[in-house]
Amino acid sequence: MLELKNLSFAVKDEDGTEKTILHDVNLTVPDRKFTVITGPNGSGKSTLAKLIMGIEQPTGGSILFDGSDITGMSVTERAKLGIAFAFQQPVRFKGITVYDLLRIASGKKITMFQACDYLSEVGLCAQNYIHRETNDSLSGGELKRIEIATVLARKNRLSVFDEPEAGIDLWSFQNLIRVFEKMRDEIADSSMIIISHQERILRIADEIAVLSAGTIERSGPREEILPSIMGTEASQDLCARMR
Fold first, then answer.
1. In this structure, is residue 130 part of a structural domain?
2. Domain for residue 147, yes or no?
3. pLDDT tens digits for 34-70?
4. Model-level pTM?
5. What are the φ/ψ torsions at residue 226 (nearest 5 degrees)?
6. Distance (Å, rounded) from C-alpha 115 to C-alpha 139?
7. Residue 169 — φ and ψ, nearest 5°?
8. What is the 8-class DSSP label of residue 235?
9. Which pLDDT score, from 0 to 100, does residue 231 have?
10. What is the H or E stretch that residue 206 is in?
């Protein structure tokens, strides 16, 4: 279980003025649940994802994972605990093949057959991708799915995806939805967080948390939260972004 307690994050502008991005964020992400964190652009969603992974360090509050305080832990230390992160814009690696990337991500020796299985799970023909370099020859949608395959290969306790729909075409997005639906249905001893304002992703969540103006406005089961954000004046901007 992941717990965020009074989490805050602020940065200093060039003139030295402190700008608060997140303040007093309190959220519990239950085990074996698919949680979507949503909200309008500029609400601090991506920053929150980076704090969870340790890419950024909070200026206040704490982060607990399975009851242990991980607030001061590095990205590497959190990865060893079983926390994974998928970037909004996946990193390209010249000279590293898809197979190499899957082997590195898994943290153990995997066969070519196993690597191909991970690619098949995200809707890619393994024969066409296994030996390709993860460079500019791959489209954004292809890279997204390869990155998700690396998360599957890692078998994490908690997987965090930062706006996986960003920069991909409709066909790729539809395939991503199918992948996330499968991951949701197969959640065992793991949890999944997706940062998104896409309605189709919200509709397959177990839990939804609404981040607004840098803090959690409300959270709970999808059945409770989704109707409230789809039918209020305050949510109209969010709904427009989800179309």
1. no
2. no
3. 999 999 888 999 999 999 999 999 999 999 999 999 9
4. 0.82
5. -60, -45
6. 20
7. -80, 170
8. G
9. 62
10. none
